[in-house]
Amino acid sequence: MYLTKSIKTLLSLVFIVLTALLFYCNDLHANAEIDDLVNKNLSKLEITNYEWTNKSMNSQPMFDVIEIRNNSSIGFKDLVLEVQVYNSSGTLYTFPIFLQGKVIPPGELIRLENITTPSILPFNVAKTRIGIKKAQFSYENNKDFNPTKNIIIENFDYIIDSSASKTVQLKLLEYKNISENYYNNVQFKIVFLDSKNNPVGETIYLNSNPISPGEKVSIENFVIGSSSANNSSKINIKVNDADLISSKAYIELGGINQVSQSQANDFNKIPIILSDLNIKNYKWISNASNTLGILNVEILNESYFDYTNVVFEVYFMNSNGSTINKRRAKSKKDIFFAKSTQDAQVSVGLMDFKFSSIEIAIISGDSSLDKEKLIKDSSDKKIVQKANTDVSSKLESDSSDSKLSGALQELTSTEIIENIIIVSTTYTSSSGSIKVLNLADYDLFDLTLEVSAKDGKSIMFPIKRLNSRSERTFFGINLNELDIIDGQYINFKIIKASKLIKN
Prior knowledge:
Blueprint: H1 2-39, E1 45-54, E2 62-70, E3 75-86, E4 92-104, E5 109-116, E6 127-138, H2 147-150, E7 151-161, E8 167-177, E9 182-193, E10 199-207, E11 216-225, E12 234-245, H3 247-252, H4 261-269, H5 273-276, E13 277-286, E14 292-301, E15 305-317, E16 323-330, E17 335-336, E18 340-350, E19 357-369, H6 371-380, H7 391-396, E20 407-410, H8 413-419, E21 420-427, E22 431-438, E23 444-453, E24 458-466, E25 470-478, E26 490-501
Antiparallel strand pairs: 1-2, 2-5, 3-4, 3-6, 7-8, 8-11, 9-10, 9-12, 13-14, 14-18, 15-16, 15-17, 15-19, 20-26, 21-22, 22-25, 23-24, 23-26
């Protein structure tokens, strides 16, 4: 009897342990699922195999098979692959493969056969690399994150102009995020209906502004052009898609709402290398002709992440400012530690060509959270994220609050051209972003960014500070005042900047 009782007790304990493990594993799976969604971790999509059908010069590239495994806990769809091919001399040529409509469920492998692209190979292929460039979430197994369910349209009003302009004026569009998730690039499908409610056409409207949990967005008086407007009597509008982002990305993209304390923890748990690592300064150690070029780069890591395998891209410029060569290099330093400033030596290859200047940028790296630094810093001070109520405050957020010792001297137009490089710009009809590089050996203050449209209309935005030998990206630039039509060219220009003259 005693033995029977002992066995019963043992079985009870085993049951309790197994139950606890089950809940623990479920919790781990849920956390992994959220992490994958928040980070949109494309590294978990893996090209496991491919076989060429044709890779000859002056012909279309053809693959007999490409196999892709999804090691993530979520599904992906609408993948874009980038194929990198080299000839025997090492010359690189790239082309995309668009896999629209293809879904890769979590934990599964798909096999794609007989793939032909419209590209033409410029040479016979000697070496091939294939990577995942883009992918969208597949929400079939993750309905809690589905933007079509979580973003609701609360109100819209419109006028259809059936004259020669064939446009729809949306007088008002109000929508709300009823979930606990963050999104941006909210995509709306607008369906045109005739007098009998039959669809006669459709178009897509994209609003790139981010939206936080519970946030309501109101857009007024914007025009959508469509040939279908001429035959329509009314329209329907619905949320078609949106990109899931983290609270940190929400702030980086110009979000105006405060991030709560609990959400701030998420803010610190998401690595964004282009904002976490900043190039403070760089100088040549060796750049003599026909020798190995070596740069010393000073890196400020402002995050709670240690970064490894950091890859730099170096642009070599001629006297006219045009790029004549571009090289990628990996830092010899193993780790860029969290909350620190460090020097790194970067080898950029043989200096067998002439150039006048360089630009350097960080393009990728691997991250790991330094939890000890995060916990210590969090215990020392409360994490507060200031709400950015307008673009000016967002652009000024990069500045230092410390008082300047000296007088500011405005740069000449020549100095601005020589020292300030607009590396890249992106924009829609409503908002834009700009990456600015300061080539000077001194910090710049009180910069003015001018954004102008083709019709001559322009708006100004202040940038308070740009550190020496560094680049910064500014998001959330409101362009609504320019009344930009989709596809219209606009110009970004720094028209004013000052340097500090010490007393």
